[in-house]
Amino acid sequence: MFCKKCGAELQPNMTFCPNCGTPVSQSDGETSKQEAEGRSNEAIPAQEELNQGHATNQAQEQANQDQQANQNQQAYQSQQVNQNQQANQKQQAYQSQQVNQNQQAYQNQQATPAQPNQVSVYFKNLFNTWKIFMQNPADIGKKFVEYKDVKLACGFIVIQAILSALFGMLFEGQTLAKLAGFFGESDALKPVYGKIFFGTLAYSILFQLILAGCIFLVMMIVKNPLDFKQAIALVSLRSMTLVPVILFSFIVLLINPIAGCFVFFAGSIWGLILIAVDLPIADQGKNGLIYFLLFAAVFLTLAVKVFLMVKTGASFYLPASDIEDLKSLLSGDFF
Fold this sequence. Notes:
Layout lengths: L25 H86 L6 H18 L1 H11 L2 H34 L9 H29 L6 H28 L1 H22 L8 H31 L5 H12 L1
Helix pairs in contact: 2-3, 3-6, 4-5, 4-6, 5-6, 5-8, 6-7
């Protein structure tokens, strides 16, 4: 209990207030006791309310924490779902891009025409040029010399040389077969086709090149503008002319070797005449001199060819390893 005057705390057995000396009556003690009990009774529900409030706060805080954890879990799961969706979208976009690239590559491949084979194109040009030339040798030959397409010209020269080599093999075989019918089988009368083919091929190409060089030189002498490429194109006109002639001479040669040779040389002469026809002449006043020197160049080339054939080319066509054996064989039966 407490003093009514000063509020000091009093013991239950005290009569006077130890602080101010105010007498303490019994009623005061009972009143103080009642007040203390009232305050104690009031404090109990307050404490209970306080404890209930603290428990409520803890429960609320725990609920908030659980809610926050759920929200965090949901946010994490949502983030994982978004990441998975983005990964799937990127994968789908990549696959779609690959499909589009493959489709584009296929479309480009279909749209882009295949590059033709260069060899087939070259031979196609050879055939087309030869076909046009045979329709009009004079005019087309002059244009061909003017364009001076050396690649096509060399192609015609090589093709004619190959056909000439085959003609030489066939002629040699036919001739020696007839000789064997007269003299009997002999090693001296067996043709060596490899030597015949490659020897004739080399001499045919060499003859064309020598002819082009001689024409080029004589044109320089008379100052008629003609470069070496044009000279190559000019002599290739003879090869163009000889191609069908040699093919026809194969048939004639099987019937009669002499007639086959006649056809071959007739075509060769026509090719030389065609060279003169298609020769470009700048100064028409020098026609006589130019043609004279042109035929001089042709005869000079033929003389060189014959000289080379006699000196070295005979070994390609005479089948015996020792040429004297063949001479002895022929001389012994005829003389």
